[in-house]
């Protein structure tokens, strides 16, 4: 099977911590896509550490701005300090977010 035709399926109705933990990418409010080094669950919030050294503490929600941006693959540019490889961006762009668990 060609590498171009391989699709990765991710369940879209999961909490943000599960989605970020699987994809290992984080869209900031300015539209910059960061590479995620560590995701730590702290009750109803999560702490995300990126490769460029930034740390975010956010609510673990299904319907947040960041969850929506990840599902719809919205971002302006990748972070130059995180140095996200091109293969990871291509893999992310070919990811299919499905609502049906049976297609995983």
UniProtKB/TrEMBL annotation:
It comes from the Bacteria. GO terms for molecular function: aminoacyl-tRNA ligase activity. This is Uncharacterized protein. It comes from Wansuia hejianensis.
């Amino acid at each position: 099977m060609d590498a171009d035709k391989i699709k990765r399926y991710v369940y879209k109705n999961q909490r943000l911590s599960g989605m970020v933990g699987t994809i290992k990418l984080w869209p900031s409010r300015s539209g910059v896509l960061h590479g995620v080094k560590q995701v730590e669950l702290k009750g109803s919030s999560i702490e995300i550490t990126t490769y460029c050294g930034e740390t975010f503490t956010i609510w673990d929600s299904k319907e947040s701005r960041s969850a929506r941006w990840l599902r719809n693959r919205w971002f302006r540019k990748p972070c130059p300090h995180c140095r996200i490889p091109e293969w990871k961006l291509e893999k992310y762009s070919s990811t299919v977010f499905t609502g049906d668990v049976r297609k995983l």
